[in-house]
Structure of Ribosomal protein eL8/eL30/eS12/Gadd45 domain-containing protein:
Amino acid sequence: MAQSKRQNVLQLLGLIRRANQLVTGEEFVLRAVQKEQARYVFVARDSSKTTHKLFLDKCESHKINVSFEFSRAEISIAIGTQRSVVAVTGVGFSKKIAQLLD
């Protein structure tokens, strides 16, 4: 993926957090996925294999997009707090992210 698109997605994550359409933390994201409130899930590529498998399986079963594109540091800097798993709940924002990542 082009560096500018990566940067745009990270900037968009910060905007989504300020718009209060971002769920952070493993338990809360898992709950949002199970309730099908999450539209796009980001799991840090440097998180554990167990975390990767858990969210990949849950997101696939609920037909939710999941990305392992960014590191924990990149996600944390973008949203302003230390997290390795975040979920976008806004439909418009998730469409824009899908457009940028594809």
